[in-house]
Amino acid sequence: MELSCKSEYAILALLELAIHYQSGEPLQIRQIAAQQNIPDRYLEQLLATLRRGGIVKSQRGSKGGYLLAREPRKITVFEVLGCLEGLDVQTPSDDLNPKTVESAVIEEIWLEARQASNSVLQHYTLADLCEKRDSRRQLDIMYYI
């Protein structure tokens, strides 16, 4: 499983919104794009998708922009990727077509791998990612001293 550019950009944008969540002030697309090096037009499309998915909300007006719809600790990476990529959380049903033993084994292992990756993605929230980022920044500061 690879992280698509679309998902990476979306998570970066959401991290930026998570950083500013406590202030309660919306961020404009150009602010997020500049801070995270994301193309404006692409970010606009991503945020629209995330808004439809209930992950962010938008505020109109001169002081408008985007905000997280919920606290960062209540938004999982799995939910974000599901909104953007439509993650397959279903288990395969038994087909009427007979399968070979080999293909059944491969399908079983693939299902196990997908369940494991989904479990990891469900475990991490935006707040967790912010904490990891902050601890890594602290390590970087210590390294340069």
Features:
about 140 residues, 6 helices, Arc Repressor Mutant, subunit A, mainly alpha
Account of the 3D structure:
The protein is mainly alpha-helical and 145 residues long. The protein has a single domain (5-144), classed as Orthogonal Bundle (Arc Repressor Mutant, subunit A). It has helices at residues 5-19, 29-36, 40-52, 77-85, 101-123, 126-144, and strands at 56-59, 65-68. Helix 1 (5-19) crosses helix 3 (40-52), helix 1 crosses helix 4 (77-85) and helix 1 (5-19) crosses helix 6. It starts with a helix and ends with a helix. The model has no long low-confidence stretch (mean pLDDT 88).
Structural class: mainly alpha
CATH-derived topology: Arc Repressor Mutant, subunit A
End-to-end Cα distance: 38 Å
Mean pLDDT across the residues is 88
Q: What is the H level of CATH, i.e. the homologous superfamily?
A: Winged helix-like DNA-binding domain superfamily/Winged helix DNA-binding domain
CATH architecture grouping: Orthogonal Bundle
Please state the overall shape, judged from the principal axes of the Cα atoms. Answer: elongated
Largest beta sheet: strand ordering: 1-2
The DSSP helix count reads 6
| Number of distinct beta strands | 2
Estimate percent helicity.
Answer: 55-70%
Q: What low-confidence regions span 5 or more consecutive residues with pLDDT below 50?
A: none
Alpha-carbon Rg, integer: 19 Å
Order of helices and strands: HHHEEHHH
Summarize the biggest pleated sheet: 2 strands, antiparallel
Sheet-strand content, in percent, reads 5-15%
